[in-house]
Specification:
alpha+beta; three-stranded antiparallel sheet; two-stranded antiparallel sheet; 2 helices; 52% helix; rod-shaped
Length: 212
């Protein structure tokens, strides 16, 4: 035997481009609860629905903030990797490189053509050094996450990192838009809860007066 789906009286047709529904602003609580026939239980049920929707928005906001924190870590890493690969390519081609590479932890031996000494991180507290012969350097290994490293020719590595940076920065822009959108909806739901609660209190007082 089938059961009719429960109607979501707080739903709206409006959504943002990621499909997050816009919160309905409650102008009149009477549109949801009949003041002549309602009970305290009806008001409590409506408040519970509003609170549930509020928590859903807060959960989505926290999820988006986690995504933003991840992107804020990922984007600088991609930029650093891109700078490093560009630096190595310039050295291989015999160029001096840009001043933008000053933040890279590199020491070049001017007396050894095409060779540079690199300080690199083994873990959070341990560093080591290596000598790189850029004239013989044709490819680099890039971490792709989940303990996966792949080797790319220098030009392909640059193209891949540029694309990854573009995607990550666009994702950050979208995430920030979603967070702002969710904050607006959270504010709307908080106002709705306050209005519904006060409406219920006033209705109770009116009923007490009429029965006194």
């Amino acid at each position: 035997m089938s059961t009719a789906a429960k109607v979501d009286r707080l739903s709206t047709e409006e959504k943002n481009p990621r499909g997050i529904p816009k919160a309905k602003f409650i102008e009149k609580v009477e549109d949801f609860i009949n003041p002549k026939t309602s009970s305290d239980a009806d008001v409590s049920t409506f408040l519970s629905e509003l609170e549930t929707r509020l928590q859903q928005y807060k959960f989505m906001e926290e999820s988006k903030r986690n995504t933003l924190r991840s992107l804020n870590t990922k984007i600088p890493d991609i930029k650093n990797n891109l700078s490093m690969v560009k630096f190595l390519k310039e050295k291989k081609e015999g160029k001096n490189g840009d001043d933008d590479d000053d933040d890279l932890d590199l020491d070049e031996d001017e007396n050894t053509k095409g060779k540079i000494e690199v300080n690199y991180e083994l873990n959070d507290t341990l560093y080591s050094t290596a000598t790189v012969d850029t004239e013989k350097l044709d490819s680099v290994g890039l971490w792709l996450g989940a303990n996966v490293m792949l080797e790319y020719p220098l030009d392909e590595a640059i193209d891949m990192l540029v694309e990854r940076l573009k995607i990550a920065e666009n994702s950050k822009k979208i995430t920030l838009e979603d967070i702002e959108y969710l904050r607006e909806n959270i504010t709307t739901m908080e106002v709705n809860i306050s209005r519904a609660y006060n409406w219920g209190v006033n209705l109770r007082k009116q009923k007490e007066k009429t029965t006194a």
